[in-house]
Structures are given as C-alpha cells and as structure tokens.
Design brief:
By secondary structure, the chain is of the alpha+beta class. The chain has 3 domains: 231 residues, 3-Layer(aba) Sandwich (Rossmann fold), CATH 3.40.50; 99 residues, P-loop containing nucleotide triphosphate hydrolases (Rossmann fold), CATH 3.40.50.300; 137 residues, Peptide chain release factor 3, domain III (Alpha-Beta Plaits), CATH 3.30.70. 30% of the residues lie in helices and 28% in strands. The chain has an 8-stranded antiparallel sheet with strand order 27-24-26-25-29-30-28-31. A 7-stranded mixed sheet has the order 2-3-1-4-5-11-6, with helices on both faces. Strands 18-17-22-14-15-21-19 form a 7-stranded antiparallel sheet. Helix 6 links the parallel strand 4 and strand 5. Helix 2 packs antiparallel against helix 3 and helix 3 runs antiparallel to helix 4. The longest helix is centred in the middle third of the chain and has 15 residues. The radius of gyration is 25 Å and the shape is globular. Bound molecules: guanosine-5',3'-tetraphosphate. The site of guanosine-5',3'-tetraphosphate has 17 residues, from helix 2.
Length: 528
C-alpha cells in the first residue's frame, strides 16, 4: 500500500485526560497548554472551570456550552508534534459525551491524587479505555501533600484497574518531606523547591545512587530512598513500549501539577511514546490513517448556545486522508454529498481559517440535525466506522408532559435529542411512560430546557426507581421470546427500537443474568 501523509500522521498525538474530579485535570491541562504555547497566561483554563461551576442552572449550562465548544478540542505544538487534547467533561457536566470522547482518542493520561488513589470516576473511565485497549500514561499528582505510600498507590492501580504499572520516576518523600523525583529511565534527579513554580528545574545526573553526592543532595532520606529503589528494581516490571501501546502496561510518573513539577517530563515522554493515529475499524475493513481518500466519524454533537441559531456542531475525527476546505464528502447514512466549506478546524488559539487537517485532527461541522453520533463521512467508499457506541445510562427520570396534547411532538423531539446523543429515551413495555436515561444528571436539565427552548414542549421530569440499564441480545429466538415473556415488566424499547432491560438495582440484574445465561446483557450499543 502506498503511504500518504506519513509525516503529518506520525507527528499527531490525540489524547484525553481521565481523572476523578479534583485530582488535578484542569491544573495539568493548563500547564500542558502553557508548554505548548497555546495559552500565554496561567489561570486561563481555571477561569473557565470556575465559570462552569458558578451555578448549575440553565443559564450556566447555556454559557458553559458556549465555552466548551472552544475547550472541547485544544490543539498545540510541542517539539515538532501536533497535539490534540480532547476535553473529557467532569464534575456536573460528566455525561455520555465524556465516555464518547474516549472513543475518538489514540491514548489517555490518567491523573490520580496521591492521597486518594483510584477513585470511582477513574474506574469508570478506565473501563471505557479498556474497550478499545487505549494506551494510558499515569500521572500521580499532589506529591507536595501528604499522600499514600507510592508502592501502595501502584498496587491500588494494578488491583483495581487491572493494568501493570511501570514507574518511570520515583518520588523522594511526600508532603512536607517531598524533596523531588528521581527519573528511573535516565537516572536524573530533580529537586523540588516548595512554593516555587519553575518551568525549568535543574536535572542532576546520578547514575549510581550509592554516589556520595546523592546523599549530600537529599540528606537523611537518602538511605530510605535507596532501599525503596532496590525493592522496586526487584519487583517492578521494566517499561516496554509494545506493552504500553497494547494497553497492558501503564508508565507512571510522580509529580505536582500545581507546582509545575514534573509536567515537562511527562509531556516529553508523552509525545515520544504515545501512539500516533492508528487503524480504525469499519464494518467492511480496518481503515489506515495513511490511506489517501478522506474519511472520518462523528463522536459528539453540541447544540448551539444561541437560541436564534438552531444549528448544532458535530465533532468529526479524521481517520484517513486529508481535509481541505471546500472538499466534498459523502454523508453515507442519508446518501448525500456535503461540502466542507464551513467546517471549523479546532485550535486552542484563534488561528483563523485553517485550510487543512489530517488523521487525528478534529473538525466541527455545522448542521441542523442531519448528523447523528456515529455517522461516517468519506470521499467515495461507503464506510461505516464502528466503536462509537451508546453507553448504558446510570440515572433515570420519567417525563411529565404538562400539555398532554403534545405527546406526538414529545416523541419526535426526544427521538431527535436521543440521536444527537444528548439523552437516551426508553418506552417501557408495560406503560406509556417516557423514561430518560443519562450517564450524568445534568443531561436531564439540559434535555428539559432544550425541549422547552428549541421545541416549545412544556415538560418536567421526576425520579423513577431504576438504576441499571442493559441492551438485550440473544441468538436464540425461542429463548428471547421466553425471556421477554418472563421479564416484561423490566423491558423497554430505546429510541432506535432496540430492546433494553431496566432494573432497580445491580442485584436484580445479576439475578436475571444468572436465570438467563443465553441472554446477552450489553453495557454499550453500537449505532446503526
Ligand atoms: P480537576 O480539574 O481534576 O477537578 O482538578 P483541579 O485541577 O481543579 O484541581 C483540584 C484542586 O487540587 C485545586 O485546588 C488545585 O489547585 C489542586 N491541585 C492540583 N494539583 C495540585 C498539586 O500538585 N498539589 C496540590 N497541593 N494541589 C494541587 P482548589 O483549592 O480546588 O483550587 P485553587 O483555589 O487551588 O485553584
């Protein structure tokens, strides 16, 4: 096969950050953007976060949407690499989008608070990364505070996230006794000065820890540190690029983002070892990023915050070929050709009118509801990329329609919002209710407000006794029919007509899974 755009593909790094709220994602993002020259001022990203958290009412949601279009993709250059950082919304705006963004990245950075270890949201996001074997670099943050012992943290990650850890740096003490980090791969020591944020910290070559100089530099902690390293050398696995890229091993760094300590090392290692865009699976065949014809898929849709403009922005990841402004591509699902003259190439800085983009880059398409999550665009070949699924919702509400005359309208509008990925909609087998399902609760507020503002439907929603949903599949029609009869009270149909099992608790789900071993209960569902 002839290789096209090799240089452009090889220098691209498209990634997301996975973390539990407050572990330090915003702080790290900001430092990375500073190194990349994408922002000039510390505090710029933080200010956006503060604005998001001011209130959680609808106006704030509106504002936040406006802001997050520009923060959804942050592009910067570093050491000749083109880095695309895709925002994974957290806190209140945690949603299915957070999961779906991870289907569009080539690797991820995992931020862990050294005092807390693995937290629930980290676990959830890791589960999504595992679906695609996304390579992960781990950043253990806040070493300047008292935290858990480093070895403890590594075994926490290994046990709970089921991934082998390989430390590439090791901390010297923590909290008040935090002296710095020692790089295990290039044998360099970096000393930490509390209260000083430096962009360049001097690195001291210490090839042998028995060296007297090491003791002079770190004082009485030297012996303890030597022992720890000895222990580690016996126990830890050496870094293996293939294992990392296969996602069976995660390299670990110990740092303090807020002090800008260790961020540069992380970024340098990241651009070197993180994978460039790879093959992307489609129904008919895998598509290589080095192929000449353009192709891409949509992983996120965002409504315009300006109510006067009902258009939406579809975020498309380029998988092969080259985007050029004004090019024509096929929108396969609806069988139409569209012109990409108005596409936006996302950049962190306002560099207007980017005319070209390559695999790994993200472009934004304005549309009026003609684009759905998972849609594929290509120059000619009728491709359909896979791996951009719906994810099982974890929160549920029942819709209360204040004007019963509008039932038909409600159904139509909810279907559209479901196609856009804003919310999931279920119709129970045994009632006429509309059950909404979401990964984050803010999705309900957004849905209700959009129903009112964009569609003129006056509705509210109330709590419902459900916590679990799974899509149901079965190869054996007889078994399926028996299951449908027995579990009809738990069954519902989603907006695309797919059968779903809704339950009050994990316990109910486990019980039925044991009763019905031939029935598949799926946590994610591909778009068709
Ligand atoms: P998030 O996006 O993952 O939610 O976390 P964020 O970066 O906002 O960090 C959460 C809090 O942790 C912030 O404190 C931040 O300053 C602090 N933090 C981040 N990295 C470090 C670190 O390396 N060491 C220490 N000691 N703290 C760190 P905050 O009080 O919520 O905000 P702020 O007033 O400090 O801005």
């Amino acid at each position: 096969m002839t290789v096209y755009n090799q240089k452009e593909v090889d220098q691209r790094r498209t990634f997301g950050i996975i973390s539990h709220p407050d572990a330090g994602k915003t702080t790290l993002t900001e430092k990375l953007l500073l190194y990349g020259g994408a922002i000039q001022l510390a505090g710029a990203v933080k200010a956006r976060k503060a604005a998001r958290h001011a209130t959680s009412d609808w106006m704030a949601v509106e504002k936040e949407r406006g802001i997050s279009v520009t923060t959804s993709v942050m592009k910067f250059q570093y050491q000749g690499y083109e880095v695309n950082l895709l925002d994974t919304p957290g806190h209140q705006d945690f949603s299915e989008d957070t999961y779906r963004v991870l289907t569009a990245v080539d690797s991820a950075l995992m931020v862990i608070d050294s005092a807390k270890g693995v937290e629930p949201q980290t676990e959830k996001l890791m589960e999504i990364c595992r679906m695609r074997n996304t390579p992960i670099i781990t950043f253990i943050n806040k070493l300047d505070r008292d935290g858990r012992p480093p070895l403890d943290l590594l075994s926490d990650i290994e046990d709970r996230l089921q991934i082998e850890c390989t430390p590439l740096s090791w901390p010297l003490g923590a909290g008040k006794l935090f002296k710095g980090v020692y790089s295990l791969y290039d044998k360099k020591l970096k000393l930490f000065t509390p209260g000083q944020e430096k962009r360049h910290v001097e690195e001291i070559m210490i090839a042998d820890l028995a060296d007297e100089r090491f003791a002079q530099l770190v004082g009485e902690q030297a012996d303890e540190f030597r022992e720890e390293i000895e222990l580690l050398e016996g126990a830890a696995n050496p870094f293996d690029l293939d294992d990392y890229r296969r996602a069976s091993q995660t390299p670990v760094f110990f740092d303090s983002a807020v002090n800008n300590f260790g961020v540069k090392e992380l970024l340098e290692a990241f651009v070197k070892i993180a994978p460039p865009p790879g093959n992307r699976p489609a129904v008919s065949r895998p598509v290589s990023p080095y192929e000449a014809p353009f192709s891409g898929f949509v992983f996120k849709i965002q409504a315009n915050m300006d109510p006067a403009h009902r258009d939406r922005i579809a975020f498309m990841r380029i998988c092969s070929g080259k985007f050029t402004r004004g090019m024509k591509v096929l929108h396969h699902r609806i069988g139409k050709t569209i012109n990409l003259s108005k596409a936006t190439v996302f950049m962190a800085q306002d560099r207007a009118h980017v005319e070209e983009a390559f695999p790994g880059d993200i472009i934004g398409l304005h549309n009026h509801g003609t684009i759905k999550i998972g849609d594929t665009f290509s120059e000619k070949e009728p491709l359909k990329f896979t791996g951009v699924p719906n994810f099982a919702p974890e929160h549920f509400r029942r819709v209360i329609l204040n004007n019963p005359m509008k039932t038909k309208q409600l159904q139509k509008d909810l279907t559209q919002l479901a196609e856009e990925g804003a919310i999931q909609v279920f119709r129970p087998r045994t009632s006429n209710a509309y059950i909404l399902g979401a990964v984050g609760v803010l999705q309900f507020d957004i849905t209700m407000a959009r129903l009112q503002d964009e569609y003129g439907v006056d509705a509210g929603c109330e709590g419902v006794d459900l916590t679990v949903a799974r899509w149901v599949n079965c190869q054996d029609p007889k078994q399926l029919a028996a299951f449908e009869k027995a579990c009809t009270n738990n069954l519902a149909t989603d907006a695309q007509g797919h059968l779903a099992f809704l339950a009050r608790s994990e316990w109910n789900l486990d019980y039925e899974m044991k009763q019905w071993p031939d029935i598949e209960f799926e946590k994610s569902k591909e778009h068709h």
